[in-house]
Write a structure and sequence with these properties.
Order of helices and strands: HHHHHHHHHHHHHHHHHHHEEEHHHHHHH
Radius of gyration: 36 Å
Shape: elongated
Strand order of the largest sheet: 1-2-3
CATH class of the largest domain: Mainly Alpha
Strand content: under 5%
Distance between the termini: 125 Å
Helix content: 55-70%
Number of domains: 4
CATH topology of the largest domain: hpI Integrase, Chain A
Number of strands: 3
Length: about 550
């Protein structure tokens, strides 16, 4: 092959005496058979000798050449060549030429770093172009970036999104000076995002002033750092008597078994109270019942109704009883708190007429999209079983027993298990969603998943949005436009069809029959029987 390329004796002798002579001839012959011209082969032959010398390749060695070492030698060759060549007509991009030729030559020899091949890591898989592939493989925090990308791929994130995440990882490393010894705060991420938003880089086709770049940088960087445990958690705002409040809340969780949600809600209530007392120049030890009354009046004037005020009083009474046991406040303070009077079943449930529910369910079947199929299944569960939002989000694939036509539920209150018959009105939408719309590959046990990757179980706010949007634009005389309207509608339908309150309570998952008794007020068939009575005989008694 060398005789075909070189007519000069010195050039021919140089190429024949250099290392890897037989391998280079076979490699060049292969390229010539694939269609490469003589001129390009002659230039490549000289480049292969330079590669062998710079990388210090020896025929007796068999170990892989790290990509970092190749990139380092590529920079040295690029700098050296630019200093020696003054002809402006020659190829400018020496760097890419040497790097590309090195990768192909080492691949032929079987000496290239195994990380470069797509089957060995996800970075090589998502970057088909060699230059960008090498750049991401040799950049800092390789293992940290690789682990996060693999985790995202397992959740169903497509390659185009993974490629964007990988690019933002390198930008975050540069702007945040990663890896750092300390945790990264949200303010530092936001400042870096602002720099990235305003920078202009024509070589990267990056324009300044795009808010989307700002938001994407924060989103990707926050999730990545959180995955590595390098994101500093936001500090809770200090408020008066914080140590005592946290002691009480921890006691609720550890000793009383209260949930984390209760912990958060009571923390919000008590923090608001402590800030109010601080604004009134009051200490916890000096507080009087009149001060609590003033606080409750203020909450009422700011929009809290009687039921909300009653809930606040219940929370405060429990806290002041705990505080009295530890002598933080007066012993009898919790006894003096009085809640507004609440009348049992003073209002009718906010429900939809069943004809309206059937119209909504029929209309939801006409949306053939993935989101539409999923939402129809959710609405069917809300309307037919009267489930709560959390009961839908916690529903798992194993909870549906198709063979025996039953569905296993976890009730939100008390976490009590319950088995319900799987009726066709629910089974068909669920089956259609699982077969046609639910993502197949993510390893998720929940029935309802997000429609966009990364796929995970939906949250209660998603169920609320599905229910709320299904009620938009309709002339409905209801107070609430959420999932509980469907729950009330389910109970009202069952009562009006003649089912007993005990049966309705079983469907809704009520422990006490008194909770279900309010639906007796909407039993219109019984009310009509009362109105049709002959009241004359009763009045004459």
């Amino acid at each position: 092959m060398f005789n075909l390329l070189f007519t000069n004796f010195l050039d021919l002798q140089r190429h024949e005496q250099a290392s890897f002579s037989e391998q280079r001839q076979a490699y060049l012959h292969k390229l010539h058979a694939d269609g490469m011209g003589i001129r390009h082969l002659r230039g490549l032959a000289g480049l292969l000798i330079a590669i062998d010398e710079l990388l210090a390749l020896r025929e007796s060695d068999t170990f892989e050449i790290p990509l970092e070492y190749i990139v380092q030698k590529t920079s040295e060759w690029d700098s050296m060549t630019r200093q020696q060549r003054c002809d402006m007509r020659v190829e400018v991009n020496f760097h890419c030429r040497f790097l590309g030729a090195s990768k192909r030559w080492l691949t032929y020899l079987g000496r290239l770093d195994h990380r470069y091949y797509p089957e060995d890591n996800i970075i090589s898989k998502i970057f088909p172009r060699g230059y960008f592939r090498v750049r991401h493989l040799v950049s800092p925090m390789y293992m940290e970036r690789l682990a996060y990308l693999e985790a995202q791929e397992q959740q169903g994130v497509p390659s185009v999104t993974l490629r964007r995440i990988a690019q933002y990882q390198l930008t975050a490393i540069e702007l945040l000076d990663l890896p750092s010894t300390s945790l990264v705060t949200m303010s530092e991420i936001q400042n870096a995002a602002a720099i990235w938003r305003d920078v202009e880089d024509p070589s990267k086709r990056k324009k300044s002033g795009t808010d989307n770049s700002y938001r994407t940088f924060i989103h990707v960087t926050t999730n990545w750092l959180s995955h590595m445990g390098l994101l500093a958690q936001p500090e809770e705002h200090d408020f008066p008597e914080k140590d005592k409040i946290m002691s009480y809340l921890n006691w609720l969780v550890e000793s009383k078994g209260y949930s984390a949600q209760t912990h958060r809600s009571r923390l919000s209530i008590l923090r608001h109270l402590m800030n109010y007392l601080q604004g009134s120049s009051l200490l916890l030890a000096d507080i009087q019942s009149t001060d609590i009354d003033s606080y409750l009046k203020e909450r009422h004037y700011n929009g809290c109704n009687r039921r909300t005020i009653a809930g606040l009083v219940s929370v405060l009474r429990c806290f002041f009883r705990y505080a009295a046991d530890r002598q933080w406040v007066k012993d009898d303070l919790w006894k003096t708190l009085s809640a507004p009077r609440l009348y049992t079943m003073e209002q009718l449930p906010s429900y939809l007429h069943w004809d309206d529910v059937k119209v909504i369910l029929t209309e939801s079947t006409r949306n053939p999209t993935i989101q539409g199929i999923r939402n129809h299944a959710i609405l069917s569960l809300l309307a037919m079983y009267g489930l709560r939002s959390s009961e839908i989000t916690e529903l798992r694939l194993k909870d549906i027993d198709w063979r025996n036509s039953v569905i296993h539920l976890r009730r939100a209150k008390g976490c009590r298990p319950q088995v319900m018959p799987l009726i066709d009105e629910v089974a068909q939408p669920l089956l259609r969603y699982i077969l046609e719309a639910r993502p197949k590959y993510p390893k998720q046990e929940f029935v309802f998943l997000t429609t966009r990757a990364p796929f995970h179980g939906i949250c209660t706010s998603t169920v609320y949005q599905v229910a709320s949007r299904s009620l938009e634009g309709r002339q409905l005389n209801i107070r609430h436009h959420g999932p509980h309207s469907y729950r009330h509608s389910c109970a009202t339908r069952l009562v009006n069809e003649g089912h007993s309150l005990k049966e309705v309570a079983d469907v809704l998952g009520h422990v006490k029959i008194d909770t279900t008794a309010i639906y007796a007020k909407v039993n219109f068939s019984r009310l009509r029987e009362v109105s049709d009575m002959d009241w004359k005989e009763v009045l004459e008694l």
